[in-house]
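In the laboratory, one determines a bound structure by crystallizing the protein with its ligand and collecting diffraction data. In a computational setting the workflow is compressed into a single prediction: the sequence and the ligand go in, and a structural description comes out. We illustrate the idea with 2-oxoglutaric acid.
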Amino acid sequence: MSSSVGFDIKVQRKQVMEPIPYVVNSPTGFDTVFEEFQFDPSVHLQYEPPSHVIDLNFNKIPFSEWRKEHLENQNCAANLAFTSPFRILSDEGVKVLREVFERNKNNSKLCQSDDRTPLRVRGLGHVSKFVRDINRSNELQAILSEMAREGICAHGVPMNYGQVNVGHIGGDRPVDAWHIDSLDFVMVMILSDMSGADGGELQVALKDAQTAKRQLSTNGELASGEEMMTVAYPGAGYAIFMQGAKILHRVTAVKSAKEPRISMVNSYMRTNVFGADNTKFSMFEEIDPKHVAAVEFARQKSWRVKGMMDYIINHASYGEDRTDVLNVLNGAIEELTSTRELLAGRKNDAVGYFDEKTKSEAMRMTEPKLV
Ligand SMILES: O=C(O)CCC(=O)C(=O)O
Ligand SMILES: [Fe+2]
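The predicted complex, in structure-token form:
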């Protein structure tokens, strides 16, 4: 059973929301820095559609067919697992995002290192307006919604905007261990030159996450081909888009490369508040400043519940049958109650990751060490 908060999925309710606004003030210590450049989709994006997608049944489908099916039937299953790599950033877009990373990589407030990931940079969306704008870009959201076959928008937790993962050369630890994400959708963009590199590859399990985890626990690895596939990025500026909460994935160690592997991960959620929200709190609370994580998670959930209340205000019809209204109220209460229990520290929703040293699932990331 999925642990996502949601309602009886038999009823296809829809309340599509405008993306949640960015916070009025960035959190203390994450002040926005001056940048002489500004995000411009016509300059910094260069979209070339993916050749195919893999759906949640692990069928490979040409993107043109995937798109056509949705155009012809808006209610077709929105069951994206992941896309093949597609070009998304222009050379200029890559250059500016690299520049943003270079300027902020020594900000110790942003750098995190733990047993799962040797080095990641979080909070760039607060300090960089450029990163914020590309995450919140309408053009990009429209492109990704077409891939998802449902409306998606920038995630409600701005700490997730533009997370950078750094894979140093020569390490024997994965850049990121086998895991599922703690939120629904991610677009992973490559910002470094990986041509001729050995390692630093994104690997994706071709089984549902539970089965893949069991296989990992039993065998310590997944067999290439049948159980797992490697996604090869043609170069910097390419990305893949995936439903990371549903698909087990990892990034292998960079054995050799021209430069360290640098990827940027943008996170997204559904615009329909009756769609599933797999955002978890406990991991973000563990890795991000506690006061920031709590407020951002509460905002995300409040935005969803606000949409549910809007649904009642706008769509409830007079009549004997109160079931629809009661179901919506119950769903909203469930989501708020769960949020309260998580924030009060009475509940933990960490999904963990697979520790390759111990060959078992690890629930805690260990306290982040500043690097
Ligand atoms: O850096 C990548 O290629 C993907 C990393 C990832 O899976 C994550 O940050 O959740
Ligand atoms: Fe991930």
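The chain has a mean pLDDT of 91. Keep in mind that any predicted model is a hypothesis to be tested, not a measurement.
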